Each structure stands twice: as structure tokens, then as C-alpha cells.
Amino acid sequence: MKRILRLLVLLIYSPSRAFDEVKESSGWMWLVPAIILIGSLCFRAIVSASASAILAKEQLEKQLSQLPQQELSNLPPVVAHGPSPVFLATTAIISGIVMLFLGWLIRSFLLHLGSLALGGQGSFGQMFVAAGWAYLPYGIRDLVQGIYSLLTGKVITQPGLSSLVATGDPIKDSANAMYLLLGRLDIFVIWSVVLLALGVSAVGGFSRKKGGFLAFGYWALVTLLSILPSLVVRKFLPSGPFGP
Predict the structure, then answer these.
(1) pTM of the predicted model, to two decimals?
(2) Of 48-52, 94-98, 190-194, 232-236, where does mean pLDDT reach its minimum?
């Protein structure tokens, strides 16, 4: 326990030393970030469920108000009432955990391949552990957002820096590439990319410059792939209450 606390402190004050120790640690060290990330994810999903349900219902009512009365009468009651807090919390937790580990595996695999291509010496297992520790800032972000929801009864509708270009119309914003890009950029993302660069360089045994290249390249690739589908779908949606 003392070693774990020490590594968590080092991750803030001397992350390079932290990753040097993580690299030489036993395989079970991946459980530490896994528990923290899952715990923070569950906390945010549970405490923000009620506020998310209210927001979802408001948005649904706004969209349904544009439908003809005949179509409204044919809708199932469950659709008109919107999702329940329990449903939202459950789906957020399940999908969040699945995406967490799926993304973790893909991230570790791609970074390991990139490390080998640049002459790195580390193993996939070491990269897997380092990648998990480098993503702890996302767990802190979940805690901060959960505390915000707990204190205000609201959810953050404009993540990251997206508020700089937000129009207030969720449908229009979802088709704005700059809005989507800025929504994936905040202090926690920057912190995580920096940690990932240090972790990759420690595992690979090469310069921080190479580690930064791999970390930023991975973030840029994932960001691009996450933005493109939304833009393509919105471009081909028909006009109407559920389209642009």
C-alpha cells in the first residue's frame, strides 16, 4: 500500500521516476489504475444519473414538439417519458468499463508497435501497465465532474473547451468539427498525453522526444477517428427534428 501511495505521489511530482518504477514493477500493478478508473467512472455515472435523465428528457421533449400530433400518438409511452436515471447509470457504467479496457488494450498494442518501430526494448505487458497509469488524469476528471454534478445537480453539457465555439444548439454543435475537437481537449487530456509520453519513453528506453511523438500521434489518431463518424452521420441525416 505504501508503494502504491508513493507511486501516486511521484506521478504528480516526478512522473519520470514513477514510470521508471512502474516499468520494473510486477504485472499486477495494472490493477491499481484499473480500480481507480473504474471507481471514478462509477461514481460519476451514479451521481450524475438524475441530472442526465432530466437533461435527456428536456432535449427529447424539444425534438418531439416538432413532430405532427399523429406521429406523437403512435410513439410508445416509454419513448415520450425518456430514459430513467437507473437505466442511464447502468448503461454508462457497463459501456464505460467495456470501452475502458478495449481502449486500454488497443492503446497499449499500438504504442508497443510504435515503440518497437522506433527501436524500443520494452514488452507489451510493461506498456500495458504504463498506459494505465498514464490515464489516471481521466479518473480525476471523472471525480471532478461527479463532484460538480453532486453539488449543482447538473451535468457538464459542453466538455473541454467546446464552450468557446458552442451555439447552444446540440444538433448544430454536433456537426461542428471545431466544437467536437475542442470538446476533447482539456487540462486532464494534456496531463494524460504528457504522462503517456513519459511512460512510453520509460518503457521503450528511448528519448522523451520519441515518447512525445508516439503519445501525441496516438491522441491525434484517436481524436480524428472519434470525430469523423459524427460528422459523416450528421452530413447525411435528413432535415427535421432529429436531423440538422
Answers:
(1) 0.84
(2) 232-236
> Grid coordinates standing for 54?
432530466
Q: How far apart are CA 180 and CA 161, in angstroms?
A: 9
| pLDDT single digits (tens) 195-223 | 999 999 999 998 899 999 999 999 999 99
Helix crossing, 208-236 with 85-117: angle to 10°?
130
User: Computed from CA positions of residues 159, 154, 138, 38, in that sequence, does the dihedral angle turn out positive or negative?
Assistant: negative
In contact, 117 and 217? CB cutoff 8 Å:
no
- What is the DSSP track for 122-185? --HHHHHHHHHHHTHHHHHHHHHHHHHHHHHS---SS-TTGGGT--S-HHHHTT-HHHHHHHT-
| Consecutive H or E run containing 58 | helix 49-64
d(CA 63, CA 169): 12
Element holding 186 (H helix, E strand): none
pLDDT given at position 165:
84
Please give the C-alpha separations between residue 212 and each of 105, 182, 197, 223, in angstroms, as whole numbers.
Answer: 20, 20, 4, 16
pLDDT digit string (tens) for 69-84?
666 566 665 555 667 8
